[in-house]
Specification:
By secondary structure, this protein is an alpha+beta fold. Helices cover 12% and strands 27% of the residues. It is built from five helices and 13 strands. Strands 1-4-5-6-7-10-11-12-13 form a nine-stranded mixed beta sheet. The chain starts with a strand and ends in a 28-residue tail after the last helix. The relative contact order is 0.15.
């Protein structure tokens, strides 16, 4: 699908909010699950957190994928998900998508590749395996896009890939993906995540081969419900050999803590930002995680 590169030096955009149904919280706000936006019908500057939204339904192909460049950050709208690329890092630094009821069962694409429509200066140098115990770790997993063949293919672009230890990629990170896979059949979810680079240069093995540093941490937030029932769960996971499934609960943080550490603004009601469950959401018995 053809993409359009829009070079923008500076642009202020005032969001336009259209009327739509949905329960409001005590602040007069809620998350629009079709757009992924958190907004207030009675404007309150302190809590108005409108952000750019990922495509609403991974089963519906958007008419075009849009690439917007602002300074060194490139926002890429793929089918069913959005990533933000840092051209200086040649890497995805944030992702966002809505996970809806699983209606697909397409197979995962069988190889990795560079995105032919993204400038080479914003991408990794290679799509080959990293090695040294690191996987090509998906930021947005193919399994959550299995209703659309093109979306699965796009998930294997290196613009959606970063070096993750095999223990993290197949352990704690995988478990968060399984939680999404199971809970999206219960309630529509908004999923956001990204990287924390840190200052550990000792594991930057792939700068020469791929042009990318190795993140020290990965973060993820899952939001479900609406109005007074809106809930969120957040993790900051180390990119280490210790990050197996059994350690996932150790990485739980509040959304407020995550915002402070990453500088992100997560579109969830303020009351939900300070809740930290005692354990990660349990994968329901009998859930089909494939």
């Amino acid at each position: 699908m053809k993409k359009y590169l829009l070079l923008i030096a500076s642009l202020a955009i005032s969001p336009v909010v259209h009327a739509h149904p949905g329960r409001l919280n005590a602040e007069g706000c809620h998350t629009n699950r079709k757009t992924g936006e958190y907004h207030c019908h009675q404007h309150n500057k302190a809590i108005d957190k409108n952000t750019a939204a990922a495509p609403a339904d991974s089963s519906i192909a958007a008419p075009e994928s849009v690439v917007t460049k602002l300074n060194d950050i490139v926002k890429v709208g793929y089918q069913g998900f959005t990533v933000w690329l840092d051209c200086k890092e040649r890497a995805p630094v944030k992702f966002r998508y809505n996970a809806q009821r699983d209606t697909g069962n397409l197979k995962r694409y069988d190889h990795f590749m560079l995105d032919p429509d993204i400038p080479a200066t914003c991408q990794q140098l290679s799509s080959q395996p990293y090695g040294k115990g690191y996987d090509r770790g998906h930021q947005v997993p193919a399994n959550h896009l299995d209703a659309v063949e093109e979306a699965i293919k796009q998930s294997n672009y290196m613009t959606n890939i970063l070096p993750q230890t095999s223990q993290l990629n197949r352990g704690a990170w995988l478990l968060t993906e399984e939680i999404v896979e199971c809970y999206r059949d219960i309630d529509e979810l908004l999923v956001m995540g990204g990287v924390i680079w840190g200052d550990n240069a000792k594991d930057d093995y792939f700068v020469a081969s791929h042009g990318v540093r190795t993140p020290d941490y990965f973060w993820k937030v899952i939001i479900r419900g609406a109005g007074q029932d809106e809930r969120a769960i957040a993790w900051i996971m180390p990119n280490s050999t210790d990050a197996t499934k059994k350690h996932l609960d150790e990485y739980l943080v509040t959304v407020a803590e995550l915002e402070k550490r990453t500088g992100e603004v997560i579109p969830v009601a303020d009351y939900a930002k300070h809740d930290k469950p005692s354990s990660s959401w349990l994968v329901p018995q009998g859930c089909n995680k494939s």
